[in-house]
Amino acid sequence: MEILRATTMGFCMGVRLAMQAMEELIKSDTPRPIHTYGPLIHNQRVLDGLAERGVGRIDRVDEASKGTVVLRTHGVRPQEKQALIDAGVRVVDLTCPRVVTSQKAVASAVEKGFQVILVGDRNHGEIIALEGFAPGCEIIGTTEEAERVVMKGPAHVVGQTTLLRDDFLAISLILKKRNPLAQTALTLCPATVQRQNALLELSRAVEALLVIGGRNSANTGKLYQQALHTGIPAWHIEGAADLGADVFGFSRVGITAGASTPDWIVEEVEAALRRGGRNV
Questions:
Q1: What would the DSSP string read from start to end of 46-57?
Q2: Is the link from the previous residue into 33 a cis peptide, with omega within 30 of 0?
Q3: What is the rounded distance in angstroms from the CA atom of residue 83 to the CA atom of residue 88?
Q4: CB under 8 Å to 278, separation ≥6 — which residues?
Q5: Among 74, 99, 183, 204, which one is most buried in terms of CB atoms within 10 A?
Q6: Three-point CA angle 9, 106, 35, nearest 5°
Q7: Helix-helix angle 218-229:190-203, to 10 degrees
Q8: Domains 2-10+191-274 and 13-96 agree in fold
Q9: How far apart are CA 70 and CA 93, in angstroms?
């Protein structure tokens, strides 16, 4: 089997910075215990590794009483961050710089009196955090919802950083047609777009595709959707243990990985493919 990798794949800048910061924090004399506020990133195997090294997780402010609390890459509501500070714990903010840009865009829009419309998954950590900067804002995720959302004069449209570019542009076009006063902030992460473009390029050179990443990773899910749209067989796997027999029937397979997938998992999958699936 010939295995081709996408030219851009795996950890994005924000996740890489967060993981480097966590490594330094674990080795430092920061107050113990160390907890992340929610999942640091969307990759369970990485989170399990952190847990083995003594990093716990909390999901509510009232669970923080001492030690260090690390804010997830997807960000948190500003009210929650302030409450953690008020609780007296050390707060380390590892929000992705791209997400911070979106948060600032939303806060600025609110300050200027704009209606804020968030485009994305209302249950995703990034959107939940952004909503905290504009309580009562509208949240939509489809073109159908864009047709129905109530628009109230000047509006500022901000998208989840991991959206497919075409999906966000389609929704934005509808909103602008309905309300010429609507402004769009193109906050999509370049890393997301680069991975999507690299996947399309890869698909032209292979017979099948493997998309590696967490089941609850939004950007990995979008990559998988795009892989399915190429028309060739595609699978979303978390690691080598998820490899099915079908994939070994192809002579040329392409692999890519979401922005929260570490290199060692990609290498694990590639090694299993080269072994023909033995001892996966």
A1: HHHHHHHTTEEE
A2: yes
A3: 9
A4: none
A5: 74
A6: 60
A7: 30
A8: no
A9: 6
- Amino acid 248 reads F
Radius of gyration of the chain (CA): 20
Structure tokens at 269: 């999958």
**Domain 2-10+191-274 annotated CATH 3.40.50.300:** no
Q: Is the dihedral of CA 233, 239, 240, 241 positive or negative?
A: negative
Q: Which two tokens stand for residue 2?
A: 């010939």
pTM above 0.85, yes or no: yes
- Token duo for residue 92: 């380390």
DSSP annotation of 62 reads G
pLDDT per position as a tens digit, 231-256: 999 999 999 999 999 999 999 999 99
Confidence of residue 163 (pLDDT cuts 50, 70, 90): confident
Question: 13-96: which CATH topology?
Answer: Rossmann fold (3.40.50)
Domain spans of the chain? 2-10+191-274, 13-96, 98-188
Q: pLDDT at position 144, please?
A: 98
* Contact partners, residue 6, CB within 8 Å, separation at least 6: 195, 198, 199, 201, 202, 254, 255, 256, 257
10 Å CB burial of residue 159 (0-12, 13-18, 19+) is buried
- Whether residue 123 is predicted with pLDDT greater than 50 in this model: the reply is yes
Q: Which long-range contacts (CB under 8 A, 24 or more apart) does 61-66 make?
A: 61/87, 63/35, 64/35, 64/37, 64/89, 65/89, 66/31, 66/33
Q: Which two tokens stand for residue 191?
A: 């890393």
Domain 98-188 adopts which CATH fold? Cobalt-precorrin-4 Transmethylase; domain 1 (3.40.1010)
> Which helix (H) or strand (E) segment is 116 a member of?
strand 115-119
